[in-house]
Amino acid sequence: MTLLKRYVVRMFMSLKYITANVVDRNNGRIVASASSVENALKSTLECKRTCNAKAAAVVGEVLAMRLRVEGLENGQGRGIHVDVGKEIEKKGLQNRTKVWAIVNALKNNGVKLVLENV
């Protein structure tokens, strides 16, 4: 069974960290992931702030780079789906700038996104 929305972006935010994953919905496998928990990312952030909009943008850039390495920046022709409204609703309005920072970083780094509920 193939799904029309095969690849989707999922975001997780805590008070300290931000994580973004791209999930293959056919088998539930995470195909690419980036997080501000990673030491390589933590060391590049100024003032070691791992959960602000700048950190979210860095997480989005790293995720885009990892998708390019995997050859999935186009989502095998269908794009990678992001339900922005659902992500903002789940994370709360105070985190909407972080959600948009990740989405914009992915778009600016060449990932073909299909935005829903904008």
Automatic annotation (TrEMBL):
<keyword id="KW-0689">Ribosomal protein</keyword>
<dbReference type="GO" id="GO:0003735">
    <property type="term" value="F:structural constituent of ribosome"/>
</dbReference>
<dbReference type="GO" id="GO:1990904">
    <property type="term" value="C:ribonucleoprotein complex"/>
</dbReference>
<protein>
    <submittedName>
        <fullName>Ribosomal L18p/L5e family protein</fullName>
    </submittedName>
</protein>
<dbReference type="Pfam" id="PF00861">
    <property type="entry name" value="Ribosomal_L18p"/>
</dbReference>
<comment type="similarity">
    <text>Belongs to the universal ribosomal protein uL18 family.</text>
</comment>
<dbReference type="GO" id="GO:0006412">
    <property type="term" value="P:translation"/>
</dbReference>
<dbReference type="GO" id="GO:0008097">
    <property type="term" value="F:5S rRNA binding"/>
</dbReference>
<dbReference type="GO" id="GO:0005840">
    <property type="term" value="C:ribosome"/>
</dbReference>
<dbReference type="InterPro" id="IPR005484">
    <property type="entry name" value="Ribosomal_uL18_bac/plant/anim"/>
</dbReference>
<keyword id="KW-0687">Ribonucleoprotein</keyword>
